[in-house]
Each structure stands twice: as C-alpha cells, then as structure tokens.
C-alpha cells in the first residue's frame, strides 16, 4: 500500500557542453559524499568531481581526460566506473583495456589525478568488482574470463564459452515432469509439445556484449554472454574461485541486461517476445523464477536493470522512440504480494545517460542527463491517504501502479492488494497523488509524468463513476521535478521544486481554475533544501520541513504568503504529520509528529519513541508501531514527555499497547470507526479494532447519551458492559429511561443485566489514559460500588414495570436474580402473580428464570415459601424426576402446619426458622426443641422465643450453661447457671474460671461455713500460683484462708520482696523473714547471676560469629534446598552431566534457567518446603540460614534483658535492706555491663540480612530480609548509692 515518494532533489551542472548519447557513469565516495562522473565525448573520456567539502560543493571540477575511441561492435567506451574506498580513488575501466585510478588527493596536491594501473591487450568487454572490492572479474576481448585480486594479481583465467553445465547442475529423476503438470486452457497438447531450443536466438535489441553481476554477499557472480555455438544468450554462475556452478536453462530472446539482486534470491534480466517485453528472473541454479511485463507500448529497449541496496526497488532504464524522438527514462518498480508495481517514472526532459543507486543509502539515486546536469534524488516509502479528521472520511488509500491509481475506502471494505475497490486510470504514468483538504477524502489531485495535474471526484464508497473535475499544467523547469503536491483548497495547490540557480528549494503556490489556467503563481524560497511539504486538512495550514529539521508554516495574508518558523526538530524527519485539537477548557493546539529514518518519533520536538517504524495521526490518538512488534495508542491529550518506550510487561487490559505481527506497518486509522489497517511484510492487509479506539468511541457515545451505539460497540468488541454505568454513574442514573428506550430489546437488556457486578471497570479494566477532564474525574466511592448492582437493578426494574410488565417480564426477573444477594423469593412471588392471570406466560418466564440460576436452588426457594403449587411448577419446568420430589412433598403435606414448616426449614438448613416453627408446634415438641438447639448451637435465638420466667427458658439456660462450660467460657456459664437458679453449678464455674471474687460471693450466698470457705480458698490459691497470679493468691490466703505463711510464700515466688516483708511484719510473723524471705532472696540472687553470665557469654559468642559470617560469606549454594529429583542419584554414571547440589559452578545456568523452572517448580512438594523451614529454624552452622537464626536469637536476648530490669532492681533493693551491699553492687555492675553491651551493638547487629538466599522456584533471588530493631525499655532500676 506504500508509494515511492520523491523526498529531495538536487541538481548540479557537470559541463557546459551536452553529453553524448553514449552511456555515462557516476561513482560516489560513501565516506565523504563526493560524486565522480565519467563520460565519453569527442574521442575523449572525461572525469569530473563534485567535492562536498569545497567552497563550490554544487559544482563539478574536471579531474582528468583520457583519449579513447569507439569500437566497431557498438559497445560502450567506458566499461566500468566505481569508487574504491580502500584505495581512496575511483577505478575507471575502458574498452581499450586500460584500467586507471583517479585520485582526488593527487589532484589537490597538484599532481596528475589519473594513474593507469594496468592494461589488457585484447581489450575489455565487461568488468565488475565484488561487493567487498577484494576481487575483480574482467571479460577480455579474447573472450576469456579473468579473475584478479584488488591489486590486479591474476587468480584464474578461463574461456568465456564452455560446454560444461557446472558442479551444481540438476539431474532429473523423473519427478515433476512437465508432462504431468497442469496446463490450463492449453490442454493436454501443451504437455506433449516439445520446445526446439535450437531455434532460440538473441533479441534484436541485444548489444551482443557480455555482462557480469555479483551476488550481494560476494560468494557468487553470474556472467551473461552470447554463446557462439548456440547463437543465444546464456547465464553462467561461478563461485568466488571461478569454478562454474550452474548454467541457465535455455531462454529464447534473452537480452543483455543483467543484475543480481543483493539479497541473493533472484537474477534479473529481460526477454523480448513478439507480443510483450518481460523482466525475467532466474534462481542461482539457473532455473526461471517468475517475470513481469513492461507496460511500454511504444518502440523501446531496455538499457540496464539495477536493484537498489536493500533489494526493494528495481530500476528499469529504458530507451523509447516516440514520433522519431528518442527518450531515455527510468522506471522504478517494487513488488508486494507477488505483484509488481511501477511506482515512479523519471522523465527529466533530457535523456538520462547514467543511472546508479547509492551503494549505502538504498533510496538515493544518482543520475546524469544529456544536458550535462547531475541529479541526486532521494525517495521514501509513503502512504497516500487523506489527512482529514472528519467522521465522514472514507479512509481512501491510493496505490500508484503506473498510470493507474488503485483506490480502496477502508471505512467500507478491506480489499487485499494487488486488488482494489476501484481504479482511477490516468492518461500517463502517475508520479504523486494528493487529497484535497476541503473534502472527506473523496477528491484527489493526480500529478503525471508530464507535470500535468488532473483532479478527480471519487464515489464515497467506491461504488459509482469517477468524475474528472479539471486539469492544470504546471510550469516546466527542465530536470527539476515538482514534488509533494498538496491541494490546499478548491483553487489553490502547492508543491516543492528545486532551483539549480541558487541551489535551494522553492515553495510554489498556484491559484488555479479547473479549466487548466494558473491564475497566479507565488514562489517562496525555503532557505535551504526542502524535505517535506505537509498540509493539515483540519486547519488548512501548510507546513514546510527543511532537511535541517526546521519546520516553517506558510502564512496566507491577503495577497501575500510568508514562511514563518514554527518548530525545530532535533534531526530531519522524512515523515511528518500535524493535527489540530482543542481539549475541553483549553485553547486550540497544533500537534506535530515527526519520524526520522532512524526510527525516532518526535511529538513537538519531544522524543516519544526510539524504535518507531510507522505512525498515524487520528483525531484523538497518535498511533505508532515499533520494532518490538507492538502498536501503541497515545491519546493526544496525554503528556508525551512521559511516554518514552520502556521495558515493561503490558497489562492484559492496557489499551495503549497491542501486539502485532512482526514487521507490521500502519496503513490507515479510520477517523470515526474503530478500525486500524495494518500491512504485513508479505503485503497482506489486516483490519483490527483496537481497544483504545473502541473505548474512545464508547466514551464519546456515553457523553452524547447515545447508549445504543455504546451498547452495540461493547457487544461487538467484547467490552465489559459495566462501562455503560461506570463511565459516568450520575449520567446513567439520570438517563435510565433513555437507556431502556434506546436499548429496548429484551435480550439486550438481559445481556446488560447479566454482566453487572460490583466493580468499577474504569479503574480495574479500562483506566482512562491522559490528562484531560476524563482522567481527573472523581472515582465512585466504596459504598456506591457495594450497592452498584442493586441500584441499577432497582432503577431498571422500576422503569420496566411502568412500561410493560408483561413484555419485559424476563428482564424484570433478571433484576431480581442479579441483585446481591439474589432476591429469588420476589421473583417467584412475581411469577405466582403472573400464574394467576396467564399460566403459559408464567411457565415461559419460569423457564427463563431457571436458565439464569440453578434449578435446585430455585426449587428450594419455592419450597421455603411454603407454596406447594409453586414448588410443583418449578419442579415440572426444571424437568426434575418426580420420584425425587413427590414422596417428599406428600410427606410434608401430611404434617401439621408449623411442624411441616419446621421440616421444610430443616431440609433447607434454615435452622433459626426451623427452631422458631418448632417452638410454635406445641409443648409436646419442646424436648425436640432442646435437642435441635443443642445440635445447631442456637441457644441465644431459642432463649428469645420463650418468656423469662418460664420453665422452658430455665431448661434452655441450663443447656446453654453446659455448652459454655464445655467451651471454657466459665464466667458466662456461671451467669447462665445463676439465671437458671443453679448456684452450686455457678460456684463451680466461677472456680474453674479463677473468678475468685465472684466465687466467694456465691459461696456466701450459699451460706458456706468458714472451714468450707477456707478449703475453697486453698483450692483457688494453688490454681492461681500455677497461673503465676501470685499477688491474688496471697490476698486469698490472707482474707479467706487466714494463712500468713502461704501468703508470704506466694509473694516470694512472685519476687514481690517488699510486700512479703510488709506482710510478715504486719502479722507479727518476723520468723518468716529468716525462714522464707532471706533464703528466697539468696536463691534468686544466685539464679540471676547465672542468668546474667549466660546472657553475656551468649552475646559475645553470637556477635563474634555474626561478624565472621558477614566478613566471609558462605556460598549461597553450599547448602541448597533439597532437590527431590536427585533421590535416585546413584543410578547415574560418574560421567553423567546434570545439575545436583554439588555442581556449584553451573547452578546459575543449569538449575535456574527458564527452561527448567517449571520442572523445579513441580518437583518441590509441600513436604520439602516444610523440611526447609525446619532447617531455617535450626540455623545450622555454615548454612545460609545461620545469619537469620543468630540475629533472631539475639533479638530474643534483648527482649529478655529488657524484661529483667524491674526484677533485678527490686532484688537489689531487698539485698541492701538485709545488708548484702557487696552482692547488690556486684550484680548491679554485671547487669549494667550487659545492658551497655546490648545498647552498643544494636546498630551493627540489626541490619538487613547480608547472606544471599538461593533463587526460588521461579529463579528469582529474594530480597534481603529486614530485621526490626529491638527496644530496651527505660527503667530506673539502679541504686545511686552503689555507683562508684
């Protein structure tokens, strides 16, 4: 779908004397850009140079002359002319046999530029250098092939003609004989017909000269020559060593032209047949491989064929005779989808005497014309489509093919090339096509090879006749081609044209009429070389880009036109586009997108992508493809500064990115329809509906309250229908009636309701992209999301009931079913009402309801309504087996009302309703009520069914108390016992729960004796000691058991020294100080000293080991997790190469490769993982888990020391009271030392773990574990009197 667009032209005078008709040559220095030209005139070969770095870069300077003469055989005087970068000279080969090097350096130094480096005495018929310029092949006048090195040392020489067919000759074994092939309309006779190759001859246009052409990689070359023994032309393929590989199959009237495609798959030549002239192709093995026919109808012959550097364009250099006038022109052909298109026909007015493609830039051509001018043309591939952003734009794309413009409106149809929807046929070959700015893409201007512009009106949908609106002939400047024509308005066209007078481009703006007259022509200097001319269809502005990256805007003011600077790009961009947008609450803004030949995409000089391959400006999106085979969609109101390409995994719901086939390019994006047309490398087209376009259209439709269009777009493109609400909830709530008026089909309403869920899809699935008002809209609150489905269902149901309940009964039922939770009872109640009036309609609606939800569930709901007729209807419509439900229903119907309902509710597991109905069934069922309550733990609900003073309630309370006591909820059980009047049970429950205050209160209420209370107290004291509630145990011993000794013993066990001393002396039991308190303090002192010493040793040992670990880290793979695949490792031989726990050097490449990750993941069982967790908890020395184990152990040490401060402080005070000053001083000093060490080591110990864990099952190395630093509480435990 791409055309060949003329991007640049420059022109320089070679000589003030016209060149002869003989073939001339150009050669280009790829490093400096210097252009050498060689031509023959007046028995002299002249060589001139255009030096890019001189003060006269646009002029040629003659370097040398060499006498020469024309041969009698009509061959060219100049055989070959090529620049050799290694020699820094141009190599000239003449038919006389001379080979010369022309050096610019020698010329600039004042010496002779020409140096003859060798001569072939018999003359030279053809010569060709290998692509790497290491080997040169020459065909001598003695009909021999001479192969030499670049220093012209002979490699081999052999005769041109030979009877051998080569080493790679194919031998038929009978497969695929011609006689067995299908011959179409010619029938079986064609299979029997034998071609007489002895009658094959040469073409009358053949110059009888041999040709040589190399394959692009330099490993083979082909020689075309007229075989003297056959009088026909033959192709022979040789390898680099000069060994014959293959000979071509016989071809009648094969001509002299020859060129091997650089990519290597085809050898191009021509064949003159009586009724046509073909470009024919051969494979390396010499077999034919397709052809295409030239379209020239006049007498003509082909001078040369040339492939460009990337093999994408084939140049056909023709000589045509018209009206006794000879014209030499060049046609440029490209191939796509197995069809050859003629994209350009280069007619400079003067005959072309030299044509060469640039050796490095595949789209640059160098031409010499007979009028002694050198031309440099730069082409690009571009797509001809309208830039109009109107919603009525038909999306026409024009493909140039000679005199035909193949037109396809992609809004209506996608026609695969080389076919098209319609063909516009011109009177001459077409150069360019432009679309008018003032139409919807249905008016085009066609520029022909004679500089004539024809204007056409196309039918909107390619159905109908094309109307010719008019023609105009542009002013002709010899050799300078008008290019990039734009149709600005009904009477104005613009184009660029080069002027060799001041060597710059001019912008021509012509006011015309459709009668062929140019009313006024304005000519504006661009100020350099013009690169692109672009017209914005929306604003009508005209932009000119220079080759330095500056973009100028043409300002039309009354009768004057002025070019003003608009933007400066970092580098020249062959592809540009502009669009005018006006965001809400913003001024009109023009966005300019530009793509360089290096794949850099700029938007207003801001780099957006460095890997772009094509782009298109839609009215609201910038769309571009990348070398990563994705197409991106950027809203025009997005911050382009934040959209540079990054390595990321796109979300499944990312509307800005879509994967495409490798090498896909954008053809056109339809402005109003959500269609993007892509062309694949092989030429086929694909139309996709990108989510970005679809969502944009849906959002626009919702804004316009066009819910039908939005709904149909969602339905067609599988977009979640929740967007109809989530895009604008308030708008939806205000227009529910409008929605149901537009989307009135019951099936469509049901589809919408069935897709509802309590989720905001504009956040989870389709987040808005950009910075416009849409992106900053407030999101719904959580409460709205929770009630979203119910709110919508209620509003829709209300409207449908008001309209026609009978018509919309299915949709109304859907609102009940889709509610959260489903309101099936209301649905069945509605069906019951409908059944009373129209049983047939009710059964149909019930069938639909069964389709929406589970039939068994609906059966249970109907059963729970206690309506047996409705239950039977549901059962019948759901096609349940009567044997499954009839006996059950019959059994239920035989029961009393409330007991029947109890059975139903119990069956439906509605236990609260069941016990409620059972309680109403009479006192005879009370025992069942108690048992049922116990079975389903319904105590609180069952208690609410009976009055407070009733015996039934007391029975339930006792059962409830037993249940609570079994759950160890002793306090609640005691309360229940109390409410039931069972105080002894309440006392037992309080005692079990250690609620001693309540227990003694109940004991007093039961009038327990003092001895019984004392016994109760002793029992509670022992239980409290077990729970380390020593203070409370001591209080019971004093208040109820009257046992001072037991009280003091409890306080000593709780380290409550001061209180124990106070109690002993208060109750005159000072003997307990000697017998209990002093021995206790001594024992505690000894224990704490041992604990402090142990803590200090642990701290020093573990911190030392931790420093050692962190200085010399163990190999993370030394003790790797067990690999269950190695359980049978003994079965492998000693030489078996596989991963194990011991292959430490290969672990990163073998175990954790992407290929084996799934195997490792499947092999690790939960048992293996638990084993690893146990290893981690043990922290075995030398493993990667040791560091974490040590740090965790030290953290527990810190917590223990922090908790000991108060205990040690109390013990020190007691020691001082008893006069043990030295002991108090020692333990205070020791513990203070330990705390100081702990404080100083916090920052060094508790840092992120530094030992690396091995990768997990997915091959990901986990991040370092962060350990929270412990805090040592601030407690005043020391005595100042003991400080030194």
Automatic annotation (TrEMBL):
It is found in: Cytoplasm; Nucleus. This is Elongator complex protein 1. Component of the elongator complex which is required for multiple tRNA modifications, including mcm5U (5-methoxycarbonylmethyl uridine), mcm5s2U (5-methoxycarbonylmethyl-2-thiouridine), and ncm5U (5-carbamoylmethyl uridine). The elongator complex catalyzes formation of carboxymethyluridine in the wobble base at position 34 in tRNAs. The lineage of its organism: Eukaryota, Fungi, Fungi incertae sedis, Mucoromycota, Mucoromycotina. Residues 691-892 form the ELP1 alpha-solenoid domain. Its main location: cytoplasm. Belongs to the ELP1/IKA1 family. Residues 1071-1245 form the ELP1 three-helical bundle domain. One of its GO terms (molecular function) is tRNA binding. Residues 399-667 form the ELP1 N-terminal second beta-propeller domain. Residues 1085-1112 form a coiled coil.
């Amino acid at each position: 779908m791409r055309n060949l667009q003329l991007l640049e032209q420059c022109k320089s005078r070679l000589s003030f004397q016209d060149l002869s008709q003989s073939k001339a040559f150009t050669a280009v220095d790829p490093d400096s850009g210097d252009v050498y030209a060689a031509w023959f005139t007046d028995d002299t070969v002249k060589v001139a140079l255009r030096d890019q770095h001189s003060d006269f870069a646009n002029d040629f300077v003659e370097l040398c002359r060499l006498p020469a003469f024309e041969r009698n055989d009509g061959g060219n005087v100049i055989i070959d002319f090529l620049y050799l970068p290694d020699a820094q000279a141009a190599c000239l080969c003449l038919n006389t046999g001379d080979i010369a090097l022309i050096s610019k350096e020698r010329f600039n130094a004042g010496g002779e530029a020409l140096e003859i480096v060798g001569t072939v005495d018999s003359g030279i018929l053809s010569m060709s250098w290998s692509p790497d310029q290491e080997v040169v092949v020459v065909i001598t006048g003695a009909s021999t092939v001479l192969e030499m090195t670049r220093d012209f040392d002979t490699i081999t020489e052999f005769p041109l003609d030979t009877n051998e067919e080569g080493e790679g000759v194919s031998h038929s074994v009978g497969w695929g004989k011609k006689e067995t092939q299908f011959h179409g309309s010619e029938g079986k006779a064609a299979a029997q017909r034998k071609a007489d190759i002895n009658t094959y001859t040469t073409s009358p246009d053949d110059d009888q000269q041999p040709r040589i052409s190399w394959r692009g990689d330099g490993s083979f070359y082909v020689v075309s020559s007229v075989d003297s023994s056959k009088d026909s032309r033959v192709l022979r393929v040789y390898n680099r060593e000069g060994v014959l590989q293959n000979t071509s199959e016989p071809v009648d009237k094969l001509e002299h032209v020859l060129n091997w495609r650089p990519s290597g798959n085809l050898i191009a030549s021509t064949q003159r047949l009586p009724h046509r002239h073909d470009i024919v192709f051969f494979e390396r093995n010499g077999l034919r491989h397709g052809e295409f026919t030239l379209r020239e109808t006049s007498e003509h012959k082909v001078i040369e064929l040339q492939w460009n550097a990337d093999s994408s364009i084939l140049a056909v250099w023709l000589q045509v005779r018209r009206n006794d006038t000879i014209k030499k022109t060049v046609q440029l052909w490209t191939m796509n989808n197995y069809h050859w298109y003629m994209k350009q026909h280069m007619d400079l007015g003067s005959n072309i005497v030299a044509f060469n493609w640039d050796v490095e830039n595949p789209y640059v051509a160098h031409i010499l014309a007979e009028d002694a001018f050198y031309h440099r043309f730069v082409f690009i591939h571009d797509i001809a489509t309208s830039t109009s952003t109107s919603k009525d734009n038909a999306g026409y794309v024009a493909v140039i093919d000679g005199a035909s413009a193949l037109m396809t409106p992609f809004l209506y149809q996608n026609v695969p090339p080389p076919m098209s929807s319609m063909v516009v046929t011109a009177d001459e070959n077409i150069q360019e096509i432009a679309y008018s700015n003032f139409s919807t893409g249905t008016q085009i201007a066609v520029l022909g090879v004679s500089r004539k512009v024809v204007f056409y009106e196309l039918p909107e949908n390619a159905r109908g006749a094309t109307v010719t609106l008019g023609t105009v002939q542009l002013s002709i400047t010899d050799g300078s081609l008008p290019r990039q024509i734009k149709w600005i308005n009904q009477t104005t066209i613009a184009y660029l044209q080069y002027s060799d007078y001041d060597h710059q481009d001019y912008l021509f703006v012509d006011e015309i009429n459709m009668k062929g007259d140019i009313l006024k022509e304005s000519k504006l200097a661009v100020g350099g070389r013009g690169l692109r001319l672009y017209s914005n269809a929306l604003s009508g502005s005209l932009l000119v880009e220079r080759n330095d990256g500056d973009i100028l805007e043409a300002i039309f003011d009354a009768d004057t036109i002025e070019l003003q600077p608009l933007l400066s790009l970092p580098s020249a961009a062959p592809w540009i586009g502009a669009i005018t947008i006006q965001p809400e609450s913003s001024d009109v803004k023009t966005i300019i997108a530009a793509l360089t030949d290096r794949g850099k995409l700029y938007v207003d000089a801001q780099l957006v992508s460095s890997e772009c391959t094509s782009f298109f400006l839609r009215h609201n999106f910038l769309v571009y493809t990348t070398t990563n085979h994705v197409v991106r969609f950027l809203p025009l109101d997005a911050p382009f500064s934040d959209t540079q390409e990054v390595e990321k995994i796109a979300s499944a719901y990312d509307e800005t990115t879509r994967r495409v086939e490798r090498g896909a390019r954008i053809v056109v994006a339809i402005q109003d329809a959500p269609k993007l047309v892509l062309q694949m490398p092989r030429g086929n087209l694909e139309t996709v509906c990108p989510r970005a376009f679809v969502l944009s259209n849906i959002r626009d439709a919702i804004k316009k309250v066009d819910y039908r269009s939005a709904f149909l777009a969602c339905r067609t493109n599988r977009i979640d229908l929740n967007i109809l609400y989530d895009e604008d909830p308030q708008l939806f709530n205000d227009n529910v009636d409008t929605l149901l008026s537009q989307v009135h089909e019951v099936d469509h309403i049901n589809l919408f309701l069935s897709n509802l869920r309590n989720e905001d899809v504009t956040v989870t699935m389709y987040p808005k992209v950009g910075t416009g008002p849409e992106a900053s809209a407030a999101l719904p609150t959580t409460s709205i999301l929770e009630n979203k489905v119910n709110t919508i269902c209620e509003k829709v149901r209300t409207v449908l009931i008001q309209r026609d309940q009978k018509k919309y009964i299915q949709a109304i039922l859907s609102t009940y079913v889709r509610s959260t939770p489903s309101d099936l009872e209301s649905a069945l109640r509605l069906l019951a009402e409908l059944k009373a009036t129209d049983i047939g309609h009710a059964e149909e609606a019930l069938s639909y309801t069964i389709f929406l939800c589970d039939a068994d569930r609906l059966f249970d709901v109907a059963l729970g309504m206690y309506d047996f007729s409705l239950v039977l209807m549901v059962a019948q419509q759901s096609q349940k087996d009567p044997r499954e439900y009839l006996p059950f229903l019959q059994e239920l119907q035989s029961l009393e009302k409330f007991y029947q309902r109890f059975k139903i509710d119990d069956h439906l597991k509605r236990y609260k309703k069941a016990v409620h109905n059972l309680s109403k069934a009479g006192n005879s069922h009370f025992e069942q009520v108690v048992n049922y309550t116990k079975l389903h733990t319904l105590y609180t609900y069952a208690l609410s069914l009976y009055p407070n003073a009733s015996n039934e309630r007391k029975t339930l309370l006792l059962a409830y108390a037993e249940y609570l006591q079994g759950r160890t909820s002793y306090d609640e059980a005691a309360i229940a016992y109390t409410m039931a009047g069972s105080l002894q049970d309440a006392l037992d429950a309080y005692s079990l729960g250690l609620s001693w205050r309540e227990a003694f209160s109940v004991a007093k209420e039961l009038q327990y004796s003092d001895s019984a209370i004392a016994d109760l107290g002793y029992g509670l004291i022992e239980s409290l000691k077990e729970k380390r509630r020593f203070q409370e145990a001591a209080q019971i011993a004093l208040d109820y058991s009257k046992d001072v000794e037991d009280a003091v013993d409890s306080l000593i066990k709780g380290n409550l020294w001061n209180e124990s001393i106070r109690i002993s002396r208060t109750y005159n039991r000072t003997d307990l100080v000697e017998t209990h308190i002093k021995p206790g303090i001594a024992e505690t002192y000894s224990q704490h000293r041992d604990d402090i010493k142990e803590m200090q040793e642990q701290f020093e040992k573990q911190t030392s080991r931790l420093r050692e670990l962190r200085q010399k880290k163990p190999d993370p793979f030394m003790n790797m997790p067990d690999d269950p695949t190695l359980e049978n490792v003994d079965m492998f031989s000693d030489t078996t190469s596989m991963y194990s726990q011991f292959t430490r050097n290969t672990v990163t490449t073998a175990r954790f490769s992407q290929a084996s990750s799934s195997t490792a993941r499947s092999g690790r069982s939960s048992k293996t993982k638990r084993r690893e967790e146990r290893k981690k908890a043990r922290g075995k020395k030398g493993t990667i888990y040791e560091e974490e184990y040590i740090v965790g152990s030290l953290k527990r040490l810190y917590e223990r020391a922090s908790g000991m401060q108060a205990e040690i402080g109390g013990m020190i005070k007691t020691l001082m009271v008893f006069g043990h000053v030295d002991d108090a001083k020692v333990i205070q000093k020791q513990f203070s030392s330990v705390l100081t060490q702990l404080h100083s080591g916090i920052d060094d110990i508790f840092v992120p773990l530094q030992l690396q864990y091995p990768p997990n099952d997915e091959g990901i190395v986990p991040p370092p574990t962060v350990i929270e630093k412990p805090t040592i509480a601030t407690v005043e435990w020391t005595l100042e009197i003991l400080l030194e």
